[in-house]
Amino acid sequence: MDYSRRRFLTAAGAGIAALSGCSAPEGDAEFHGEQPFADLYEAVSPSVVRLRVYDDRGPLGEGSGWLFDDGVLVTNAHVVTDADTVRAQFANGDWAEAEILGSDPYSDLAALSVDPPVDADPLPLLDEQPAVGTRVAVVGAPLGLAGSLTSGVVSGVNRTISSIQNFTISGAVQTDAAVNPGNSGGPLLTLDGDVAGVVTQAGAENVGFAISAALTERVIPELVERGSYEHSYLGVRIRPVTPLLAAANGLDEARGVYVSAVPEGSPADGALQGGSGSVTVEGSPQPTGGDVIVALDGTRIDTTGQLGTYLALETSPGDTVAVTVRREGERRTVGVTLGTRPEPQ
């Protein structure tokens, strides 16, 4: 974003901090004027679009998108699934036909090529996970109402969600800003004008989710260049370690990721060990005998979400990772060369 579109927000933030005799919070310092969301909307709205999607029989639906790079729009994969034609409406009312460059169902991200107006600048991605409580806004076209803004805070981070197409996405950002049909693919923005995530769905009232900026930064350039994205694949079936599962397997704490099965021929076949039995704890059958993953490459892994996030953001197919497990009461580390996640069936 150019300086002219940021400077009034910088000045507003500096002024309010000086008047109060304190510093503005880090990450929210530029946008503390009397109308921070109005200022934000004025700055970013030329870069946010309403999308209409068609196949050869007529309209399929609507969504939102935003300018990631010169001539490149980001939206959700589920917005453009089965599309033959995609049209983008910019804030000035102009419509432009957009070409799908690539789409990735596993991250629910898609990249489109478009000829934007001269006043539409790419929006920068936030370079770290936002803190819970960070003020944010969703800009897009809920219910087809172009040029809409809703506001709230980041109400959770590192969430593991199920996408509209029923694929697991790790590291998602949770917000209480209103998210409705049509917001899909639009930006979740901090008051600095940085994209904290790509809105993907509403979970319930006052609970919405966005694909993290970090995953977006990895996936979109590959979609632009190659039309697809290859995800790392460990090749195991997993489940969280609950207190009952920990008791069944003689673990002293309920943390880590339990390997319930290792399919034959998967990347982990021969390296990791799946469950082999079952015992009943407090009336509940619990699997036994499987490895419990507690670290990858020395990074502590406590949950299935942390496992998914590490694989998504820190590895690529072909990498060999050091997997530390608890097996038969002992801690050991084995190497697994990651594969490529198979195409969805």
Would you write up a description of this structure?
This protein is an alpha+beta fold. It folds into two domains: 1-229, Beta Barrel (Thrombin, subunit H), CATH 2.40.10; 232-340, Roll (Pdz3 Domain). The protein has helices at residues 7-20, 36-44, 77-80, 213-226, 243-248, 304-314, and strands at 48-55, 58-69, 72-75, 85-89, 95-104, 109-113, 135-140, 148-162, 168-175, 187-190, 195-204, 207-212, 232-233, 237-240, 257-261, 277-281, 284-288, 292-296, 299-300, 320-327, 330-337, 339-340. The longest helix has 14 residues, at 7-20. The radius of gyration is 22 Å and the shape is elongated. The two termini are 40 Å apart.
Please give the radius of gyration in angstroms.
22 Å
Number of helices: 6
Q: How are helices and strands ordered from N to C?
A: HHEEEHEEEEEEEEEHEEHEEEEEHEEE
Low-confidence stretches: 1-29
Please tell me the CATH architecture of the largest domain by its name: Beta Barrel
How many beta-strand segments? 22
Helix content: 10-25%
Mean pLDDT: 91
Strand order of the largest sheet: 1-2-3-6-5-4
Q: Could you name the CATH class of the largest domain?
A: Mainly Beta
Specify the overall morphology.
elongated
Q: How far do the termini sit from each other?
A: 40 Å
**CATH fold type of the largest domain:** Thrombin, subunit H
Fraction of residues in β-strands:
35-45%
Structural class: alpha+beta
Domain count: 2
The main pleated sheet reads as: 6 strands, antiparallel, barrel
Enzyme class: hydrolase
Domain PDZ: 232-329
EC number: 3.4.21.-
InterPro entries: Chloro_Bact_Ser_Proteases, PDZ, PDZ_sf, Peptidase_S1_PA, Peptidase_S1C, TAT_signal
